[in-house]
Design brief:
- By secondary structure, the protein is an all-beta fold.
- Helix content is 0%, strand content 36%.
- The chain contains no helices and eight strands.
- Strands 1-2-3-4-5-6-7-8 form an eight-stranded antiparallel sheet, with no helix packed on it.
Amino acid sequence: MADKNASDYIYDRFGAVKLELIHSSSVFYEYLSGKPIGFIGNNDAVYNYSGVQVGWYEGGILRDVNGAVVGFNDRPTDSPRPFLPFKQYAWSNISPDVLFNPEEWSS
């Protein structure tokens, strides 16, 4: 069984750490600022603090609302998954740190 006090670092498509997920609270934090920006709700759905669903987190893969990969942890088990950490067809154009700000998705 996984340690509930553990955390996962979430990497972008280039292998840079962007987020930290604290398992005990299911809260995502911006890696550099330490600011809480979202959480995991029911059925692995990911929400920002405005209550907007922005994606899913399952098997170590963070996906946007369209199912495209936004980021991944050190031990992804979700399948199918893209070849990590290289940019592939299954990658979202949204960066993990921008995922929680839908108003910035088109930027």
